[in-house]
Structures are given as C-alpha cells and as structure tokens.
Write a structure and sequence with these properties.
200 residues, 0% strand, globular, mainly alpha
Length: 200
C-alpha cells in the first residue's frame, strides 16, 4: 500500500539516484546485486547485535532495490533483472527472519509461520502477475495489496528493535497483515477477472 501511495513522493529521489548511477556506468542488475549484498550485511549486523547499523543497511538495501527498477525503465528492462529483483527481495527479508530465529529460538515457531505466510503471499502475487493482464509500469502485472515491501520493512524493523521482548507479538502482527493482504489481493483479482469476463 505504501509503495503504491508513496511512489509519486519518492520518485524524484529515485530518478536522481538512477540518473547518477547510469552516469557512473552501473547497470540496473549491478545495483540489484549491490542492494542484496547490503541486505545480507544487514542480517550479519543484526546477528552480532549492531542492531541500528543492521536497520540502516536494511533500509539502504530497500532504497537501492527501488532505484534499480527506475534504472531499468530508463535504460532497457530485462526479464533476468525482474527475476533477480523479486528473488533477491525474498533473500533479504528471509535473512532477517532467519537471523531472528537463530538468535531467539524460543520464537522460532512463530517466525516459521511468518515465513510460511510470506511463501503463500508471494506464490499468489507471482501467479496473479503471470496470468493477469499487465497495464502498469512494471514488467509484469503488479497486484497491489495491504502489505507491500515498505510495510514489510517497517514490520521487520519493529521486530528487530523490540526483540526478544515483543518479538512474538510483532511477528504475529506481521502474519496477520500478510494473511489479510493475501486475501484482499486474491479477492480483488477475482473481482477484476469477473468484470473482464462480463465485458467480453
């Protein structure tokens, strides 16, 4: 939701960074690689209790992840870039959850449930993206939802900051939002398909 609503606000910054990186002869895929490397480093910092540095790296990774898409649209989008981008997003998020499960094994079950909810959510998201008609700016149909990447980063940040005391409840909140987003995304897709069918 915040990704979609906030796009017009943050786009000038993304354009500026994208233009700068293009001038530096970087490709969108190279920036994607930098983003995932920084995201993995965030997990390492959190694991060794440098929490605020880890959070800073997490958000920097997210910013670069947004920039690479802008770069691709300004140059030449590629199918490989799309696959890497979506895959590496899950690597970064999964890394944070995995580190929390390692550090706080007493909460591993609820963290495993969170991973499962993300798995289901991404399966639905990608399936809809594959079968639905694409009319947006992205390389495949982007089914917006209650929880997009920014909401995920906010929730991960809250989980990290308040671990271990509130880790169970913040993770549970993430699960509820993820499930609700999945249900809303699916019902919106069904409605769109029914309306399309009625028009044809």
């Amino acid at each position: 939701m915040l990704d979609t609503k906030g796009q017009p606000i943050i786009q000038p910054l993304l354009d500026t960074l994208a233009d700068t990186f293009i001038k530096w002869k970087l490709t969108a895929n190279e920036v994607t690689g930098i983003a995932v490397s920084i995201g993995i480093a965030a997990s390492v910092w959190i694991y060794i209790d440098l929490v605020w540095l880890g959070i800073a790296f997490l958000w920097l990774s997210g910013l670069l992840d947004a920039v690479d898409g802008t770069m691709a649209r300004k140059t030449k989008p590629s199918a490989v870039g799309t696959v890497l981008d979506v895959t590496f997003d899950r690597v970064v998020e999964g890394g944070i959850i995995l580190v929390l499960a390692i550090k706080y094994p007493e909460h591993s079950v609820v963290l495993l449930l969170l991973m499962f909810s993300i798995l289901i959510a991404m399966t639905l998201f990608l399936t809809i993206g594959n079968v639905a008609r694409n009319s947006g700016r992205k390389s495949f149909h982007y089914a917006t939802g209650l929880a997009e990447r920014t909401e995920g980063f906010i929730l991960l940040t809250v989980m990290v900051i308040f671990a271990p005391t509130w880790l169970f409840w913040t993770t549970l909140l993430f699960i509820v939002i993820e499930v609700l987003s999945t249900v809303l995304r699916f019902t919106a897709f069904v409605k769109e398909e029914r309306e399309l069918h009625e028009r044809t």
